[in-house]
Design brief:
Order of helices and strands of chain A: HEHEHHEHEEHEHHEEEHEHEHEEEHHEE
Number of domains of chain A: 3
Distance between the termini of chain A: 75 Å
Distance between the termini of chain B: 101 Å
CATH architecture of the largest domain in chain B: Alpha-Beta Complex
Shape of chain B: elongated
Radius of gyration of chain A: 25 Å
CATH architecture of the largest domain in chain A: 3-Layer(aba) Sandwich
CATH class of the largest domain in chain B: Alpha Beta
Strand content of chain A: 15-25%
Structural class of chain B: alpha+beta
Largest interface: A-B, 36 and 34 residues
Structural class of chain A: alpha/beta
CATH topology of the largest domain in chain A: D-Maltodextrin-Binding Protein, domain 2
Radius of gyration of chain B: 27 Å
Order of helices and strands of chain B: HEEHEEHEEHEEEEEEEEHEEHHEEEEEE
Helix content of chain B: 10-25%
Number of helices of chain A: 13
Largest sheet of chain B: 7 strands, mixed
Oligomer: heterodimer
Strand order of the largest sheet of chain A: 2-1-3-14-4-15-16
CATH superfamily of the largest domain in chain A: Periplasmic binding protein-like II
CATH superfamily of the largest domain in chain B: Oxidoreductase, molybdopterin-binding domain
CATH topology of the largest domain in chain B: Sulfite Oxidase, Chain A, domain 2
Number of domains of chain B: 2
Number of strands of chain A: 16
Strand content of chain B: 35-45%
């Protein structure tokens, strides 16, 4: 056998083993699924993040699942143990305070570690009214008269259900804040109208508590279970206005009237004023969640649960979300970002994320 | 000897206790659903539920993000039928559905009996009007048993006649308890006359308390009605003195005027003031035999001595004083 023939035979043998090897390892490599449980208002920006991240990280498949923020956390701390559903790798909610409130104090049964021990504040939002050019008085409405227009009997107003949706209880808070801001004492009730089971306001020395009944049947107000669902009747003309987050309105292409800074819940500056108002729900949907909410500025929080199945991949994805590129993607989708993001307990944060945030 | 007897008795007691505990546990394990209304409790096994008259149809759900699941072919038992097993519901009760994981959802009387849900077209996602809806506890989906993974063995579902979908948060998984709870619904009685006044439920009930204006009337069937005399309510709007001394203006009675009692559906009866004035046995009743009025009369009904059937207006919404 000549040297040339021998060389060909060796090369052929290598190729015979190499090609199937490549097919088995490189081309059909099984991807790691990183599951994010996210607030519904993050679905659009996180959809864009998913696309960009997967393009840069072909070994990872990102799966985004959306719920109301409370339900998001419940899908981590309660339901996997009960129903066997897989635990999420990342949790992102529209009210960052829910993470310490519900995850820091609940222990993972197997390890007796808390479900989470750090939270990064990464985004914010503002509250206002979604509407369209068909909405009654759309050419007249502004930041001085919106509550008067909403109170007109012929104007159809929608709100998301405060029992299920953070945008709903925040809308009630904003209406009460508006009474202080505009110095009118009947804005809340003139906008929401009468309920079969009354919504009451308890005034006290420190401020007031809005009491939402267990059953919500409004005579004039249209109630939908999430703020996203208000957009369908607004777009079809069945409703004139709906209380909405700015990012969601922009993502769905409807007009948006942002409330003044003092009442739109987007500013840390007015935290002191907000702290005088609470919303208390008579409706206890989850055995584990106390349904009392303080007014806090709208700040989104993100964490990786301590029992995340794929912590390293989750860290890579969080790093991407918080990176300048990730923030740009979210901003393109109408999500206002906090730059730089802020962490509450720096010592507990995975080291590779420490450079992307500042300590609170 | 005595010690041996004591030992035997002790062992027997332990055996009986273990046997009883096991039996209780065995019974508990067989219970798929517990229905309660006050002290009345009914428990049902899954087999007993399947033996009840079933409802079948299509239903789907829309998640809070707008994603659609279904519609599915569902089979189950009507929630109204289940509530009837512990005395049924009335406008002042709500139905609380409790799941095994602690999730609880409360439905109003209107939702349970009058289909007060938003329905969506599963394709266009637009809100669409609906015909009859039925709230069921479903034990079968697409011809198969409702498994634990799907939220079974009993999952709340809303059936529609046109394959419409409803909001997903109503579709509680792993239902194991139905509780009928008091849920006093607010209402308003409109008084119209020389002045106008709207009286809400809390104000009316406080006025109808014993020691205030609360008055009882027993009809010829022995039924006890409880409420406020009509003439006192008329006195609030017959002139500009609503509630001080001499709120009821006797001098106007001499001139004569009429009082119209108007029901929610527009039906009305008109009585001359001479037939009402100072008569404590003609009352606007809010209770019958100590309970809220039944649906046909709720929230208020005129009851009293000498009234004809047509004059006993139910579901009162407004009382109007008509001066000549």
């Amino acid at each position: 056998m000549s040297a040339k023939l021998l060389r060909k035979a060796v090369l052929g043998t290598i190729l015979i083993f190499l090609i199937p090897g490549l097919i088995l390892t490189g081309f059909s490599q099984e991807k790691t699924t990183v599951k994010i449980q996210a607030a519904g208002s993050l679905l659009v920006p996180f959809g864009a993040i998913e696309k960009a991240f997967e393009a840069e990280n072909p070994d990872i498949d990102v799966l985004v699942e959306g719920h109301g923020s409370i339900q998001v956390i419940r899908h981590v701390i309660e339901l996997p143990a009960f129903s066997g559903e897989p635990v999420a790798d990342i949790v992102a909610v529209a009210d960052y305070s829910l993470i310490p409130k519900l995850m820091y104090e609940t222990m993972i049964p197997e390890s007796q570690q808390p479900y989470a021990d750090w939270c990064i504040q990464f985004g914010t939002n503002t509250l206002g009214l979604a509407y369209t050019p068909q909405s009654k008085y759309n050419d007249e409405i502004n930041t001085d008269n919106w509550y008067q227009i909403l109170s007109r009997p012929e104007v159809k107003v929608g709100i998301s259900d405060p029992r299920f949706d953070s945008c709903g209880y925040r809308a009630f808070m904003a209406l009460k804040l508006a009474e202080f801001f505009y110095h009118k004492d009947d804005i809340l009730h003139s906008v929401i109208g009468r309920f079969s089971y009354p919504v009451r306001v308890e005034e006290n020395e420190d401020g007031c508590t809005i009491l939402i009944p267990e059953l919500l049947e409004a005579e004039r107000l249209a109630i939908r279970d999430s703020s996203i669902k208000l957009l369908f009747p607004i777009q079809s003309g069945d409703l004139d206005y709906g209380f909405e987050y700015k990012s969601v309105a922009e993502q769905h292409g409807v007009d948006f009237l942002e409330f003044p800074t003092e009442i739109n819940l987007g500013s840390e500056k007015y935290k002191e004023i907000y702290s005088n108002i609470k919303v208390k729900l008579a409706f206890k949907r989850f055995a584990s969640v106390n349904p009392d909410y303080d007014i806090l500025p709208i700040i989104y929080g993100i964490t990786i649960p301590n029992n995340a199945p794929h912590p390293q991949e989750a860290i890579r994805l969080v790093e991407f979300i918080l990176s300048p590129h990730g923030q740009e993607i979210m901003e393109d989708k109408g999500q206002v970002v906090i730059n730089p993001p802020v962490v509450d307990v720096l010592d507990n944060l995975p080291r590779s994320l420490a450079d992307t945030v500042i300590d609170k | 000897m005595k010690i041996n007897k004591l030992k035997t008795v002790f062992l027997l007691v332990v055996f009986v206790l273990i046997f009883t505990a096991n039996s209780v546990l065995a019974v508990q394990e067989g219970v798929a659903l517990k229905i309660t209304s006050g002290d009345t409790i009914k428990t049902l096994s899954i087999e007993e539920i399947i033996d009840l008259p079933a409802l079948e149809g299509w239903g789907g759900r829309m998640r809070s993000t707008g994603a659609i699941e279904g519609p599915f072919a569902l089979k189950g038992v009507s929630v109204i039928d289940l509530c009837d097993m512990v005395g049924g519901i009335n406008p002042d009760t709500a139905v609380k559905i409790i799941s095994r994981d602690g999730y609880a959802m409360t439905f109003s009387y209107k939702q349970v009996t009058e289909n007060d849900f938003i329905t969506y077209d599963p394709v266009s996602l637009n809100e669409v009007p609906h015909d009859d809806l039925h709230m069921i506890l479903a034990y079968q989906t697409d011809g198969d048993e409702m498994t634990f993974e799907l939220g079974g063995p009993l999952r709340l579902a809303i059936l529609s006649e046109k394959n419409q979908v409803t909001d997903g948060h109503w579709w509680s998984k792993w239902v194991e308890q139905i509780e009928l709870v008091p849920a006093p619904k607010d209402w308003v009685l409109q008084l119209r006359g020389d002045r106008d006044e709207d009286i809400d439920r809390a104000t009316f009930e406080s006025g109808a308390a014993e020691g205030c204006h609360g008055t009882k009337y027993i009809d010829d069937k022995g039924r006890e009605w409880e409420g406020i005399p009509l003439w006192l309510l008329v006195g609030r709007v017959d002139d500009d003195n609503p509630h001080e001394d001499k709120a009821f203006n006797d001098s106007l009675v001499k001139d004569g005027y009429e009082v119209e009692i108007i029901a929610e559906d527009g039906f009305s009866a008109t009585l001359p003031i001479s037939a009402i004035a100072r008569r404590n046995n003609i009352i606007v009743a809010y209770k019958l035999n100590g309970e809220s009025l039944p649906e046909d009369y709720w929230p208020l009904r005129l009851a009293g001595e000498g009234l004809t059937g047509k004059e006993q207006v139910g579901q009162i919404k407004e009382i109007k004083v008509i001066f000549p």
